[in-house]
């Protein structure tokens, strides 16, 4: 069975505490915060949840741990782990489960205390016999390799990369929940501490605690709840490798395929998208996903962003919450992209709201450009 455009909707979203959370809080505590807040957002009780979806770096059997923690007995669970793209994939899986009658109210959640807990917060490192002997600083070295190749092939500059960070910071300054709000210039990005050439620390995402939750249900039930439904118009996922040394083309990601699938299901194209929420673990990823998701041709993203088009007031509003670069990045960031995309379609974003936002694209990235998943969301006007 293939999922149907608009058959389900996101009806509740919420963040957990973000940044550096109170001492003693666990990832499950943050997930519970997100779930209870998201359920309150849509007016549903915890007892209504019969589908539980999530991924985490600090829990090996997440849905089992959550059902015990929350004291619920869902009929369906899915803890598919694909890195930061997991949560967009969960949207597609939750849609299929709801359509198949396996559950009626699905919750997708994430939580991490990686900033508070430091190195102990992450899973053990995989040993790759082709890369580990060279002692790369992962994941930064992997993204730096792809950035260097993009610069070599297309003339992309460090200034183009820096513009992505500056645009994200300007959006963050409009978001009360953002971690970094100080002014940031291209010169400051270029002059910051080098992490892995050509990426400085300002080309790299934040290290924060945080999480949240998304509540989904059928389109029919969604219309009776507290907030306007945000319909799932299209989903697509694709993967290309695990280790960066096995990436077929360092400048083209599997987002090309995931985007094609999502656009086809939605019956829409890049020109129809009002807001782009793109996984920005590094400044490079925003450029790659602008290209691979069809907002410009391959190799043209650098010049495209150079005139400030991604910034507030620009022609291509992107990462409107401040992104992983300035708002929040708790290890895996994809769920927070879905939250922002939903709020933009609802018109709830205050000073950072993009006018007339009926279609929002949220794109997740996992591993070292390894797994890609795209979700297109729309208002009632689109169904």
From TrEMBL:
Ranges where the Thiolase C-terminal domain occurs: 236-378
Xref: Gene3D superfamilies: 3.40.47.10
A GO molecular-function descriptor: acetyl-CoA C-acyltransferase activity
Record's protein name: Acetyl-CoA acetyltransferase
């Amino acid at each position: 069975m293939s999922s149907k455009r608009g058959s389900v909707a996101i009806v509740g979203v919420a963040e957990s505490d973000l940044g550096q959370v109170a001492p003693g809080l666990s990832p499950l505590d943050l997930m519970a915060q997100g779930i209870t807040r998201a359920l309150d957002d849509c007016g549903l009780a915890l007892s209504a949840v019969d589908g539980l979806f999530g991924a985490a770096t600090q829990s090996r059997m997440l849905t089992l741990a959550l059902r015990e923690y929350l004291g619920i007995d869902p009929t369906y669970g899915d803890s598919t782990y694909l890195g930061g793209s997991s949560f967009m994939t969960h949207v597609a899986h939750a849609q299929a489960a709801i359509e198949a009658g396996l559950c009626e109210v699905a919750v997708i959640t994430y939580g991490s205390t990686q900033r508070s807990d430091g190195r102990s917060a992450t899973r053990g490192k995989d040993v790759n016999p082709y890369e580990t002997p060279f002692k790369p600083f992962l994941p930064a070295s992997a993204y730096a390799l792809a950035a260097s190749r993009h610069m070599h092939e297309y003339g992309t500059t460090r200034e183009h990369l820096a513009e992505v960070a500056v645009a994200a910071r300007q959006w963050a300054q409009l978001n009360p929940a953002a971690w970094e709000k100080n002014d940031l210039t291209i010169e400051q990005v270029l002059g910051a501490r080098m992490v892995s050439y050509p990426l400085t620390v300002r080309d790299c995402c934040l290290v924060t605690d945080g999480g949240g939750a998304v509540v989904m249900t059928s389109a029919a039930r969604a219309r009776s709840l507290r907030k306007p439904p945000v319909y799932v118009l299209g989903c697509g996922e694709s993967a290309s490798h695990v280790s960066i040394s096995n990436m077929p083309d360092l400048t083209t990601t599997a987002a090309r395929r995931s985007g094609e699938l999502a656009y086809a299901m939605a019956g829409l194209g890049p020109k129809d998208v009002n807001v782009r929420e793109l996984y920005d673990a590094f400044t490079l990823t925003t450029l790659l996903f602008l290209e691979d998701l069809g907002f410009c041709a391959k190799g043209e993203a650098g010049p495209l962003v150079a005139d400030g088009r991604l910034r507030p007031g620009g022609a291509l509003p992107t990462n409107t919450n401040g992104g992983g670069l300035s708002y929040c990045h708790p290890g895996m960031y994809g769920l927070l992209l879905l939250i922002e995309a939903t709020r933009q379609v609802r018109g709830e974003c205050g000073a950072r709201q993009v006018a007339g936002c009926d279609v929002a694209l949220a794109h997740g990235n996992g591993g070292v450009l390894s797994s890609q998943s795209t979700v297109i969301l729309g208002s009632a006007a689109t169904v």
